[in-house]
Specification:
single chain; 271 residues; alpha/beta; seven-stranded mixed beta sheet; 6 helices; 18% helix; globular
Length: 271
């Protein structure tokens, strides 16, 4: 089975999309290349990435969820904010992935041999603001806790691109012990806004994969609505959980006002 496809975003940034319609990004400098996330752990994503670049490869994980970190078993050098370590060890374990994917019609027939194993090497900690020099191309990591506590946003400085990923998007999930409450998440977004003059393009890992720059302001407005107790009547079901949603949506979770940006949250996070 062919698990991956690719498309160029620029001469130095390539989007890799898996068959589940999640994506990650390969960023190629003059000296080395970095894979920003490793997707769901089916097939050999390193082997695929090496068809796109001959530069030495390493991995940065934006956070520890299954659809971002499961494929890192194939790599020797892996970085992630250690606040997500327990989450990574749970979500990216072979047992957790098999239990989840065996229930999904899209993945239940995938043979065991096509599952990446659990990564057992050292995971290097990422500091807020840390820069990775790829050779005339720099990736700076910005801490944006909210969706998870170790959530990091990569800023590709010379390309003026930023990968919001799951940190800020069309349906940010705030639930469970690893997520922030809305007021703390809002503080993270306000700090992210201070970088607004350093990028022109917002990339994401799901859905349309890109957003207009007003996305951040739209999600900040969602935080304000939640904290004011607005729009709590609509419930959406996602990932086996009933969520409240900040802005009213249609049956495909598109905002009724046509804007991008929303938050799906459980009531214990609405403060």
């Amino acid at each position: 089975m062919e698990y991956y496809t690719s498309e160029k975003i620029s001469d130095r940034v390539i989007r890799i999309t898996d068959f589940l319609k999640n994506c990650c990004y390969l960023v190629i400098g003059e000296k080395r290349a970095v894979l920003l996330d490793t997707l769901d752990g089916f097939g050999n994503i390193r082997q695929f990435a090496e068809t796109l670049t001959d530069k030495p490869l390493f991995v940065i994980l934006t956070h520890g969820h299954i659809d971002h970190g499961a494929g890192c078993w194939y790599f020797d050098e892996v970085w992630m904010n250690r606040k997500d370590m327990a989450l990574f060890q749970e979500h990216c374990s072979l047992e957790f992935r098999k239990e989840r994917y065996r229930k999904d019609p899209a993945t239940r027939a995938i043979p065991d041999s096509d599952y990446a194993l659990m990564y057992e090497g050292e995971i290097n900690d990422i500091a807020d603001g840390q820069r990775f020099d790829l050779g005339n191309l720099t990736v700076r990591m910005i801490a944006v806790p909210g969706h998870t506590q170790g959530m990091m946003v990569p800023l590709i400085e010379e390309e003026r691109m930023i990968i919001f990923g799951d940190a800020c998007g069309v349906g940010v999930l705030l639930t469970g012990e690893n997520s922030s409450c809305v007021s703390e998440y809002r503080k993270s977004l306000q700090r992210l806004k201070t970088f607004e003059q350093e990028y022109d393009t917002i990339l994401r890992n799901h859905g349309t994969f890109c957003s207009p720059k007003e996305l951040l302001d739209n999600v900040l407005e969602c935080c304000d609505d939640i904290l004011a107790g607005k729009n709590r009547d609509q419930i959406v079901h996602s990932h086996g959980i009933d969520f409240h949603i900040a802005k009213p949506v249609d049956d495909k979770e598109n905002r009724l006002d046509g804007k991008q940006g929303n938050i799906k949250y459980t009531l214990d996070k609405a403060h």
